[in-house]
Structures
1.
Amino acid sequence: MTLDAMPSRRIVNFAGFAVCCGLMGFALFAQHVLLLDPCPLCVFQRVAVISIGLIFLVAALHNPSGAGRIVYSLLLALAAVAGAAVAARHAWLQQLPPDKVPSCGPGLDYMLEPLPFTEMLSTVFKGSGECAEIVWQFLGLSMPAWVFIWVTALGVTGVWNNLRRD
């Protein structure tokens, strides 16, 4: 493919934003139509997808040159790595044998009130029984596995797109 046939950086950034909107649309469909309530790790994965989407949108609207492209690439990489790490941890919890699964804990909304932020984060990342339950699969992969794939692909695409030469 020649450079003339490549879509512009702005179009790819808008496409990344649109993919994130689609992912969040499915997450809301799963929650409100399929009645699959998100666990605390799911909520953090949603935050990562929303963050990636917003970075893509701002990059598309700004359409920077020079150092701005590097900044957007770094922000996309950071958000994607964070999202992939949470999704990987979640998928790992789902693969644990039943006797190794942590016990169920309080919900995220409850933990936000009495616990300091760092302690709440530590508790969430340890996971709980509700995070280990696989309630939805597509092509043999659970939702956190799909989130891992999508945020990794979005991160790689965003970094490549914003660092490529015109």
2.
Amino acid sequence: MKKSSRKPADELRPEYKRSDFGVLVRGKYAARVSEASNVVVLESQVARAFPNDHAVNEALLQLMRDRKGSARPTARSTPSRQKRRAG
């Protein structure tokens, strides 16, 4: 059996009227969609290091925990003796 070819019509069906639909607005919900989604494009080296989104999230959360735990800088604020002699 051969299937009949149906082409979608660019016209409204007879039971609908254009006046029933109101004014059409292009991109009406674009702002809402962009607020609800966070898309981050990673560089290729970074993307290869993390197999999935869960791995990226875990790494970032760990970084946040590490920074929160160490409020003071761990390095000396003054140069060490060796650096002062060389300079």
3.
Amino acid sequence: MRKVFLVFVVSLAFVSSVHAQPASPVRQPPPPRAIFTPQPVYRTEWAKQRLTGKGVVLVNIDKHTGNVTGARMLTSTGNQQLDGAALQAYSQWRFDPRTVAVSQLKIPIEFANRPKPQAAARSLPQPIILFIFLAIAGVAIGFLRRRRA
């Protein structure tokens, strides 16, 4: 009886230790490779109004064609115009069908009012460059005249 009890306790301890093992992490399939990705339009009037926002778009992807079959805002940017621009752009996306393992994909979007890039600084204004060119040409002509004489 003692042996049976001991075997029972040992087997119970073994079974509970097997179930107590941490589960291996569930591996997510890699995201599909996008092959056509038009970006959302950020209109100049929105920049003047300083409209900004962050959101997440959930797109539905046809696994056979790689076409986006639907898009909706999972998290709104806080502005209907910005949401509309994001949905219009992401609904046109296309993916390589060979890489599509999931039928839905979350895509973050951020509309930020970025400062305009500064124009490249020119070292010399245009009239000065023209003056230097004419001066060099005049010196060259004078040099050639002296050589002929």
4.
Amino acid sequence: MASELEFFFDYGSPFSYLADTQLKGLAERTGAIVVYRPMLLGGVFKETGNTSPIAIEAKRKYAMTDLQRWANHYRIPVPGNPHFPINTIRLMRGAVAAERAGVFVAYHRAIFDAFWREGLNLGDAAVVRGTLRRAGLDAERIAAMSEEHTVKDGLRVATETAVARGAFGAPTFFVGEQMFWGNDRLMFVEQALTALS
């Protein structure tokens, strides 16, 4: 039976985006199944008393440098968005809706790429709809589903679950009950998965 790697993320986290670019290769090397867990990073910060790195000048400067280092290491374009930060609650509810509609893979790729590769203003609902349509998705259906109470509750519960399990930021990974925080912990994630296989 394949081991599972749980990936708790928020589209507004550039380090979640960096990690996401590496998960396919990691899964192929370890035989693991990646389980995507959308959560609301703002909610995690609120519940844990944590703050975004951009709120602290020294952290913000370092994070920008670190982003460039990791992008160079992964040999991918440096993620960036002139509209960052934005409130991602609609995007994250959209992820839950897309999961329930069976189109998560296409939604996930479209949103992450639009945010961090194309630098689009995904705080604008019209831009989000255009992004989803270009990906061949039913943007109106996803938007409507995102407003359903079950979807809103789903995101809230996922966020609360992440916090209850120890998450305080994104990306957060779980291999069984082992928690790993940060894109820079993927080496240890892979070791844990390899040990299980």
